[in-house]
Amino acid sequence: MKIKVIKDILSANKQIAERNRRLLDSNGVFALNLMSSPGAGKTSLIIETIKRLRGKVRIGVIEGDISSSLDAEKISKERVPVIQINTGGECHLDANMTSPALDNLSLGEIDLLLIENIGNLVCPAEFELGEHKKVLLLSIPEGDDKPYKYPLMFHIADVVLINKIDLLPYLEFDLEGFSRAVKRINQNTEIFQISCTTGQGIEAWISWLVTNMHHPAH
Amino acid sequence: MKIKVIKDILSANKQIAERNRRLLDSNGVFALNLMSSPGAGKTSLIIETIKRLRGKVRIGVIEGDISSSLDAEKISKERVPVIQINTGGECHLDANMTSPALDNLSLGEIDLLLIENIGNLVCPAEFELGEHKKVLLLSIPEGDDKPYKYPLMFHIADVVLINKIDLLPYLEFDLEGFSRAVKRINQNTEIFQISCTTGQGIEAWISWLVTNMHHPAH
Lengths: 218, 218
Prior knowledge:
Chain A is built from eight helices and seven strands; from the N terminus they run αβαβαβαββααβαβα.
């Protein structure tokens, strides 16, 4: 019975996600769903991405948080349109919450929409929002065992960014073993090592992003 | 309607949690519910705690994971009884999952039960398991804004451990501002700075633990 309910929720979500995606497509907006643990660096990645693409790509942001608007305030300083979604306790965004946020953005004036999900490696993996690609951010201090512990998240990720790579000298993290584990779960995912602090690897990420925006293949 | 369902789930959970707590009490077991983001160091804290209390306190462990048993294997090397709960996708432990795990431990041979919850700062805060105290582990790399973003978790925590304090020189983290924010949400919580890598602050944590075991005040 419980499984039935969950399936119905997911199936209803999928329908709304498809409607969101059609709305984005009809406005020529390429959308990313950014997922990670709390504090892995989603907001920093968004700010770095805005800075690198300023004047080239028109960016909009949807910020998902349980109750605060701290990250939306940080991002609005970059002078891009930001809509805050407060889930009021829910541990993930879903397509239904995303829909009114889309209605509140001027989609015709946006090329790239960055959606920052709730910091959580579990439930966000189950709910499509209408995005074109799913970005998973994992940071060095979290440890290299995460693919084993949160396999669904790695299974659905189109790209995995290993953030805070500048902390590698201070921590034990087996980069090769991690990448092998990720590829075993999802051989199509791409992996980049980045640091939003030092800028390492950000060019490669931006290049992936721009390439996918122009050849979305979805 | 939806809220009604959630309330019923939480109220049913609370009843089972109380039954679990009575079972623990009748066996003289003091139980902790350890919660954190993925990779904040719950398993390392459990291992440090076992090492410091070996020969003095008989410890048992319940390991919550979505699908793997990596952490349970690490902990079983410390020669303590470990029960693995795999939630099969659920992002938190609940009292109902905890109950059969308790039945599979020889509670009469345990003084202290450490329950490692799923790595998640959201939903675990809503589900009591039958524990006597709630321990929230937050690590320096996650950033000092977490009390604003996950207020319920800080609201319910009896103790907040700031782990990976050895990484402070490499990261921006406002310890005073963080502690002020925590105290604003929950003035009764105690805060310790620790490092499971260097051992810093572990004595203070062990001292808190032993004091609370003997004067549980629950």
